[in-house]
Amino acid sequence: MMNPSIPRTRRLLFVSPLPPYSTAGYRFSALQRLGQQVHAFDLRQYTPSSRVIKGLQFRYPFGPLVASVNHELCKRVEELRPDVVWFDKPIMFTPKTMRTIRNTGAKTIFYVQDAPFGPRNDGCWKQFKRVFRMADLHCLVRRADVVRYRAWGLPSIEVMLTFDPRMHYPPPIGFSDSNRDREISFIGHPHEQRPAFLLKLARDHRLPLYVSGNLWTQIWDEEEQKLFHLGGFLGGDQYRSGIWQSKINLSFVTEENEEDIAHKAVEIAACGGFLIALRTPGHQAIFEEDREAVFFSSVEECAEKCRFYLGRPDLREAIAARGHERAIRSGYDNDTQLARVLNRLDGKEE
């Protein structure tokens, strides 16, 4: 069981957008639970109201588009004098700002869930690539980045894509199929192969699919949409309830983002949901196949396993319970992983 020592208390400035139910917000709360004196620098107040200007800032984070946020962050650092400045996906901050922070004696942590060096060209990483070598510690969630950063000789720690124990937890005792009104469920966005994959499951294999998320009605035509039970975005409590109410929860990875583990796979297991996920080395490493989760490598295998497990609630309940226990025992939660990060900043090895 992963059980890192309690990190020492620090004054920490947390730099990120902090909308409700965001993974950054969950990390902010976890740092507070770990006894850190956490102060928010919420980037939402520096996001332009104009969609055009917002898009320009995202793709070209230079000059006047980011001058204000850099000035205000430096000012806040000078006022607060934090021990640590924690950046969640720092795409707007300049080398000058990083030098200003370093000159105060503060350490910097970069936590990036996306893939700045992967094949997907998001267009937002230009400023990040000017400053990433200046961070005191990088938190890396994908194996491809672990290899890169080690080759570059940069200070880093490999961390899990996490669940939040205050948000992602199992249903009440006695919850069963009588409470579940979603047969086969996918909650998420229509990235990469997912629309075609789910369409084959519904049309060719005639399986009952419930799909929740943004943009699906823009991907499938009206006839294709009739094959599904479609719903909108689910966040926070609704997201957890959606997992609870699903007999089968599907999960994929975003290959262009170099994912080997799906964030949703970890959250589904933490919520006590029955997980059928794309078979990857990462998923096979964090869950024992057919005991803690079920995997597939093709539409046909997925369809076969969905059909089998729909008729076996006893097996689904047992596998889901073991998957949840594995997520807890192995420390896939925010508190455990962020304690590791802070301890590594002190040079503590595991």
Description:
- With 350 residues, this protein is α/β, with parallel strands linked by helices.
- The protein has two domains: 11-162 and 333-345, Rossmann fold (3-Layer(aba) Sandwich); 177-329, Rossmann fold.
- The chain has 15 helices and twelve strands.
- A six-stranded parallel beta sheet has the order 2-1-3-4-5-6, sandwiched between helices. It has a six-stranded parallel beta sheet with strand order 9-8-7-10-11-12, with helices on both faces.
- Strand 4 (107-112), helix 5 and strand 5 form a beta-alpha-beta unit.
Throw out a few tags for this protein.
globular, Rossmann fold, 350 residues, 12 strands, six-stranded parallel β-sheet, 2 domains, 15 helices, alpha/beta, 40% helix
| Morphology | globular
| Spatial strand arrangement across the major sheet | 2-1-3-4-5-6
CATH evolutionary superfamily of the largest domain: Glycogen Phosphorylase B
Q: How many E-type strands?
A: 12
Strand content: 15-25%
The CATH architecture of the largest domain can be named as 3-Layer(aba) Sandwich
The profile of the biggest β sheet is: 6 strands, parallel
Distance between the termini: 12 Å
SSE pattern, N- to C-terminal: EHEHHEHEHEHEEHEHHEHEHEHEHHH
- The number of domains is 2
Class of secondary structure makeup: alpha/beta
The CATH top-level class label of the largest domain: Alpha Beta
- Helical percentage: 40-55%
Question: How are the SSEs placed, and which strands pair?
Answer:
Blueprint: E1 11-16, H1 23-33, E2 37-42, H2 51-59, H3 64-80, E3 84-88, H4 95-103, E4 107-112, H5 128-131, E5 137-140, H6 143-152, E6 156-158, E7 182-187, H7 194-203, E8 209-212, H8 216-219, H9 222-225, E9 228-231, H10 237-244, E10 246-251, H11 263-270, E11 275-278, H12 281-286, E12 294-296, H13 299-310, H14 313-329, H15 334-345
Parallel strand pairs: 1-2, 1-3, 3-4, 4-5, 5-6, 7-8, 7-10, 8-9, 10-11, 11-12
